[in-house]
Amino acid sequence: MSLSRKLLLDGEEVVEETRTHIKVLFVPFLLGLVLMGVAGFAVGFIGSRGDGWARGIVIAVAAVLFVITTLIPFLRWYLWTYTLTNLRIVEQRGILTRTGRVIPLMRINDVNYEKHLNDRLLGCGTLVVHDASQQEGLKLHDIPRIERFHRTVSGLVFDAHDTHQEVPRGESS
C-alpha cells in the first residue's frame, strides 16, 4: 500500500517506497505450513470414524490459528511501508488503525545504518534517522538494499540542507 496522493504536498514526488525485507515472513510461512500439515493429518486421522463435528472443529481451529500465525503477520508486513519523497520520510503502519510518522528532510541531522551478519547475507539492514526533535530516532528495520537506500536518503538530506540554508547578512545570492 503506497502513500496516498492526497497525502503528498504541492511539488512533492515519491522517490522510493519500500517495506521491510521479506525475511520477516519466513517464520510465519513455516508456521502456516506446519499448521496445515498437522491439520491435514488430524482430519485424515479422524476420517470417517468420527462425526462431521470433529473434522469441523479441527478445521475451524486450524483456520483461526492460521489467521493468527500467518495471515496477520503478512498483513502487518504488507501494510507497513516507508516512503521517501523529495521532501520527507513517511512511515505508515497498521492493519485496522493506521499510524504514521513524518520527518521532513530538512530537519534530519544524522542518517546511518546497521547491518548484522544475517542482514549482510540477505542484503538488508536498519536505517536510523535522527532529526531535530525530542523523539527517539526513526528506525526503519530490515530495509532491502540498505546501502542504496542510505545513499538516496543522504543525498536528499544534503540537497534539502543546501536549499534551505540561510544567506549570511551582507551577502547576496
From TrEMBL:
Residues 77-152 form the YdbS-like PH domain. The chain crosses the membrane at residues 24-47, 53-79. This is PH domain-containing protein. Keywords: Membrane, Transmembrane, Transmembrane helix. The keyword Glycoprotein does not apply. It comes from Aeromicrobium piscarium. It holds the Pfam family bPH_2. InterPro entries: YdbS-like_PH (IPR005182). The keyword Transmembrane applies.
